Amino acid sequence: MAILGELARGDLLHLDCPTVHSASLGDALHRWDIMQTEAEDVRTLYAAGPAGIPTQQAFSQDLRWPSLDTDREGGCVREMAHAYSLEGGLAVLFGNIAELGCVVKTAGVDDESLQFTGPAHICDSQEAAVADILEDRVQAGDVVIVRYEGPRGGPGMQEMLYPTSYLKSKGLGKACALITDGRFSGGTSGLSIGQCHRRLRPAVRLL
Do 157 and 99 belong together in one domain? Predict the structure, then answer.
């Protein structure tokens, strides 16, 4: 609700939309947005803290945080003027090896890595990429390209978690880029570009 409140103050929501729990989104925010409400029961609810007591009984402990996080400049939830990123956390890129687009989580890319040039180190599976990383065949400055993990080659489009994790464990998280037609999880960081697809033509590979 705190995030919705900040989006509303940025004029990014239709507050007249009905919800399942309130007559409108505006009414819900007026009641439940901690930056608007004066209702003591709402503030008490949000102050609920962890008791560390294993139980299956709801509301069986009464520990409370001494204060609420209402710091919208440097706190967990921030106002738009002090957002972690004003450009969003994802970008869809297009290019000669991504004619139909690819996705990069810009929120996880350091500014110095936004431009990257290096030799391609091509692997035909996630397993091959993992082996090359762990056996030190991938060097700093390489662009690791993992093919055949997308809808044509990778059954189920498995999550491409291991290559990025092992690059970081080898100290190459900022020293290498990774491009794949596979998919990443939300925990990916570094210059990792996924779901990279070209137009399919006879005898033309995805990457």
Answer: yes
3-state class percentages of the chain: helix first, strand second, coil last, to nearest 5:
25, 15, 60
The verdict on residue 117 lying in a domain is: yes
- Residue 67's domain comprises 1-84
Residues pairing with 146 in the sheet: 123, 180
Asked if residue 97 and residue 77 are part of one domain, the reply reads: no
Mark whether 67 is an active-site residue.
Answer: no
Looking at 84, 111, 137, the residue that finishes a domain is 84
Classify residue 2: in a domain, yes or no.
Answer: yes
Residue-wise pLDDT tens digits, 50-68: 878 888 887 788 889 999 9
Q: 98-113, pLDDT tens digit by residue?
A: 999 999 988 888 888 8
Residue 52's pLDDT is what?
A: 82
Based on the domain organization, do 2 and 59 belong to the same domain?
A: yes
Same domain, 130 and 45: no
The answer as to whether 200 is a domain residue is no
* Cβ contacts of 168-173, under 8 Å, gap ≥ 24: 170/133, 170/134, 170/136, 170/138, 172/133, 172/138, 172/140
Provide the pLDDT for residue 37: 92
Within the chain, which residues score under 50 in pLDDT? Answer: 202-204, 206
Active-site residue, from 22, 125, 185, 189: 185
Cα-based distances in Å from 90 to 5, 29, 117, 188: 22, 27, 21, 12
